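User: Hey, quick favor. My workstation is busy. Could you predict this chain's structure for me?
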Amino acid sequence: MSFFPPKEYATRNTVLPRRAFSTMLLACVFFTVPGVCSADDISPVVEIVKTHCIECHSAETKEGGLDLTSPGTNVKDSLQRAQWIHIYDRVRKNEMPPDPQQLPEAQRDQMLQTLEPLLHDADMAEVMANGRGPMRRVNRDEFAQNLRDLLQLPDLNVREILPEDRVGHHFNKTTAMLDLSRVQLMAFLDATESALSQATASGMTPPPAAKHRFLATQMFQEAETFGNREAMFYAKNNQLLPLNGGELAELRRTNQHDPEAELA
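Assistant: No problem, here it is.
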């Protein structure tokens, strides 16, 4: 369908509409509106980076340890996404480039508006697929605690047998830092054997069990009675047994404890 009126209607009254359509067509030719980026299209940002950032972040200069000669374009990859998050944060804070005038405000806004949904969606997709905390091995403290719980050995100490775990972001539970080498695997086996040896009876007859009975007024001797934050209350025959601090201290000094007193 033609945008212009037929020639038979090209009278004086139709000159203005024809001129208007001509102007619109000319604008379409000279001022092409850029297409909207797809959800995974990071190429406009890459072009901006290559134009304005390569001088300081080339393979030769590599300021701050950042080489942007060939920036990755797959934000679904965690390592590449981490690099783009670093770039996004620096650009948003006007720290990159060092002189804010080197990057036009329009291109800065374009970078931020393009990167933000891409990084957010990629991060959420990874969380939905793998969880917020990826699967990892236990560190040496957790391993020792698990052995104590499983073997019911509260005094078990195998921590020093195990190599020290690497630290990432001030934590020794970071998945990326908890690798498993042959040396570490052998240390875990040695610690397990040591724990099993301690949990296994050394003879046919188990050692006699030691039993200790503590009366109520013998317990928590650092605590006080009635009113303080760590107050102890005692009962006898289901009734309150009033003992002030002086009386309780005297009982403990003379060792004349009432066996029927209970800790309430």
